[in-house]
Specification:
The complex is a heterodimer.
Chain A (H helix, E strand, L loop, with lengths): L1 E4 L5 H8 L6 E8 L3 E2 L2 E10 L1 H19 L3 E7 L1 E4 L3 E9 L2 H18 L2 E7 L4 E3 L15
Parallel strand pairs in A: 1-5
Antiparallel strand pairs in A: 2-7, 3-4, 4-6, 4-8, 5-7, 8-9
Chain B lengths: L1 E6 L1 H7 L3 E5 L6 H11 L4 H4 L3 E4 L2 E3 L10 E5 L9
Parallel strand pairs in B: 1-5
Antiparallel strand pairs in B: 1-2, 3-4, 3-5
Classes of the chains: A alpha+beta, B alpha+beta.
Chain lengths: ~150, ~80
């Protein structure tokens, strides 16, 4: 399952779709809304996505994980719209026979998500200002579509 | 030919619209769209260095040729979360 949603995300949603009797490990990752960015107080966040492309790219990440680790059971859900402090913005679930591959694949899914999935975050601060998050020093353009 | 062009995040704010239909000459590429936007809003060119483009949900280059009905998007840097 690879989807964008405007509904509240729970860990159960990804766990339920990935767990299976032949898995010895389920690795779950939740990204949550932090109350500050480098010390500046955040009021809330707004996420926007290019939905059909985002879901296509998330499915490609699933395919990459299958090729690298042979893991089929991967789920990624990303939320869009307004999110309050503490709410889940993204959930990743990976079920694998052994934990090492599961941890690696889960980290890989999040790293790739940041690189290739068209989702944007707008930070609204307590002082009333707001801004689309600026890129880090790395130019997005220099990141290859596939590693 | 006619194509749909979509704008997200910073591009959406700068151009004050989320999408539009554009009529382009035969043989047009992604570059044709970028040049046209630059005429309307020169500042957008500063973002070209860090921006990706997509055609029909797949990353494209400036030289990607366009066809009738294509869906093109300007994708400013995808952000959020540092590598820590």
């Amino acid at each position: 399952m690879f989807k964008i949603t405007s509904e509240i995300i729970t860990e159960a949603q990804v766990r339920e779709v990935v767990e299976s009797p032949d898995s010895g490990a389920v690795v779950l990752f939740l990204g949550t809304v932090r109350n500050n960015t480098d010390g500046r107080q955040v009021k809330h966040l707004e996420y926007d996505a290019y939905e059909p492309m985002a879901e296509k790219k998330m499915a490609e990440i699933g395919q990459e994980i299958l090729e690298k680790w042979g893991i089929k059971r991967v789920a990624i859900i990303h939320r869009v719209g307004k999110l309050e402090i503490g709410e889940v913005s993204v959930a990743v679930g990976v079920a694998s026979p052994h934990r090492k591959d599961g941890f690696e694949a889960c980290k890989y899914a999040m790293d790739r998500l940041k690189q290739i999935v068209p989702i944007w975050k707008r930070e609204v601060w307590l002082d009333g200002e707001a801004e689309w998050v600026k890129p880090d020093a790395v130019f997005f353009k220099s990141i290859p579509d596939r590693i | 030919m006619n194509v749909i062009v979509k704008y997200f995040a910073v591009c959406h704010e700068m151009l004050d619209r989320s999408e539009e239909e554009m009529q382009l000459p035969d043989g047009a590429t992604v570059q044709t769209i970028l040049k046209r936007l630059e005429e309307e809003w020169p500042e957008i060119a500063e973002f070209y260095e860090v921006m990706q483009m997509s055609v029909n949900w797949e990353y494209a280059t400036e030289n990607t040729e366009l066809s009738e009905g294509d869906e093109v998007a300007l994708i400013p840097p995808v952000t959020g979360g540092k590598n820590v």
